[in-house]
TrEMBL record:
Keywords: ATP-binding, Ligase, Nucleotide-binding, Protein biosynthesis, Transferase. Belongs to the GatB/GatE family. GatB subfamily. Heterotrimer of A, B and C subunits. This is Aspartyl/glutamyl-tRNA(Asn/Gln) amidotransferase subunit B. It comes from the Bacteria. It comes from Snodgrassella alvi. The gene is gatB. HAMAP family: GatB. Allows the formation of correctly charged Asn-tRNA(Asn) or Gln-tRNA(Gln) through the transamidation of misacylated Asp-tRNA(Asn) or Glu-tRNA(Gln) in organisms which lack either or both of asparaginyl-tRNA or glutaminyl-tRNA synthetases. The reaction takes place in the presence of glutamine and ATP through an activated phospho-Asp-tRNA(Asn) or phospho-Glu-tRNA(Gln). Residues 327-474 form the Asn/Gln amidotransferase domain. It is an enzyme of class 6 (ligase). Its EC number is 6.3.5.-.
Length: 475
């Protein structure tokens, strides 16, 4: 039987506010356990929550970026469940009236552009953290994270492969960091993904029974977990079993998911309106304030790059995949004025070098200014592509500019026609066999002669001039 995979993602975006959603406690990562938990976070009697205005502002920005509906009236609900790291016995969240609804996010999977609908994004507080591995026979409770502001962003179940899901998660990660509403640090839990996965026979309209894989903190784990879960469900059904709706965890060491608990439905949480929090009404002024502080969005910037620098649509998409890379490109392109060359080198030689070194562009040993210096020397024919690669390798290993390396190593491209002609004459005299083969119609012989000329010039002769002059000599 042919099976179809159905995937929806719930992404927990930790907002980068300085204080928590309902208290003045710090949200800084890495503090000693329980030093950033005040009376509100610990749910001491008489302590009342107060809404953090900046949380609302950041939520509005995401809604605007997703071209979504922003609900003007927002109420908070109590989501009741009992766990050691939830001292109140409930989590403050939003159920029926989320701040953001009906948005869209564009993703690129291979060469295909897809639109994934975003059902909702709602504000809520995070729970604390249970620490199981520091005390023998005991579990430690750290409430520093309790009350940290989150946006839970829920997609429609419109993804049909792990590749779709990873592309969507990456696009959402790029967007929230671009908007500067989240630092995106997955290792620290700032961006966590829950994947709802089910399978159904192809052509069937009804969804299969879904399982939720919780707390995936890397794109690689997301892909591995989905692929394993899809295989597990298909094998289970084909063997005559049934998929049970449940929450599962992914074990990256074993590359498999395992059951955690049966999956609760909304009614199991006994939601009811929080009596301690008044509705939050979003005014026109609040909307305008959020709009005025919005950065140029990736799609808008990509369109401008195409228009301003003459680069391809594909290159523009890649360059605007994150804000640091886009800013880096624009800085280099403005310095040199050679946008296409900068894009080619960023997405070619530089990307390969960064990948090999296992670092991103923010840690590149070659700055935007230095790369612009290199592309300037290519544009004015001081360097051929071959010489430019040699200069690039030296730049990667040193702090020298392209001009300094060219001067020190005498790498300036030879463009003097007379000097090139003299080398050609010498090469032709020494390679009469190749000359005869070319004249008899063997084009490979011409390439061999070009190679000999380039070798004789130590790679410094202008390749285009060599080919033009060589053909005229052989005519």
């Amino acid at each position: 039987m042919n099976w179809e995979t159905v995937i929806g993602l719930e992404i927990h975006v930790q907002l980068n506010t300085q204080s928590k959603i309902f208290s003045g406690s710090s949200t800084a990562f890495g503090a000693a356990p329980n030093v950033q938990a005040n009376v509100v976070d610990c749910a001491l009697p008489g302590a009342l929550p107060v809404m953090n205005r900046e949380v609302v502002n950041k939520a509005i920005k995401l809604g605007l970026a997703l071209n979504a509906t922003i609900n003007r009236k927002n109420v908070f609900d109590r989501k009741n469940y009992f766990y050691p790291d939830l001292p109140k016995g409930y989590q403050i969240s939003q159920l029926d009236l989320p701040i953001v609804e009906h948005g869209q996010l564009e993703i690129v999977v291979g060469d295909e552009v897809k639109i994934i609908n975003v059902t909702r994004a709602h504000m809520e507080e995070d729970a604390g953290k249970s620490v199981h591995d520091e005390f023998e026979h005991y579990t430690g409770i750290d409430l520093n994270r309790a009350g940290t502001p989150l946006l839970e962003v829920v997609s429609e179940p419109e993804m049909r492969s792990a590749a779709d899901a990873v592309a969507y998660a990456r696009a959402m990660h790029s967007l929230v960091t671009w908007l500067d509403i989240c630092d995106g640090n997955m290792a620290e839990g700032s961006f966590r993904i829950d994947a709802n996965v089910s399978v159904r026979p192809k052509g069937q309209a009804e969804f299969g029974t879904r399982c939720e894989i919780k707390n995936l903190n890397s794109f690689r784990f997301l892909e591995q977990a989905i692929n394993y879960e899809v295989e597990r469900q298909i094998e289970l059904i084909e063997d005559g079993g049934k998929v049970i709706q449940q929450t599962r965890l992914f074990d990256p060491n074993k590359g498999e998911t395992r059951a955690m608990r049966s999956k609760e439905d909304a009614h199991d949480y006994r939601y009811f309106p929080d009596p301690d929090l008044l509705p939050v009404v979003i005014t026109d002024t609040m909307l305008e304030t959020a709009k005025s502080s919005m950065p140029e969005l990736p799609k808008e910037m990509a369109a401008r790059f195409i228009e301003q620098y003459g680069i391809s649509d594909y290159d523009a998409r890649l360059l605007t995949s994150n804000h640091i890379q886009a800013s880096w490109f624009e800085q280099a392109a403005k310095i040199g004025g050679h946008g296409k060359l900068v894009a080619n080198w960023m997405l070619g030689e530089l990307a390969a070098a960064l990948n090999k070194a296992g670092i991103d562009i923010s840690a590149s040993p070659i700055s935007a200014e230095r790369l612009a210096g290199l592309t300037n020397r290519i544009a004015d024919n001081t360097l051929s592509n071959k010489l430019a690669k040699q200069v690039f390798e030296t730049m990667w290993e040193s702090n020298l500019s392209a001009d300094a390396i060219i001067e020190r190593d005498s790498l300036k491209q030879m463009t003097d026609i007379g000097a090139i002609e003299q080398i050609i004459e010498e090469v032709l005299a020494k390679n009469q066999k190749s000359v005869e083969e070319f004249k008899s119609g063997k084009e490979k012989a011409f390439n061999a002669l070009v190679g000999q000329v380039m070798k004789a010039s130590r790679g410094k002769a202008n390749p285009q001039q060599v080919q033009t002059l060589l053909r005229s000599k052989l005519a």
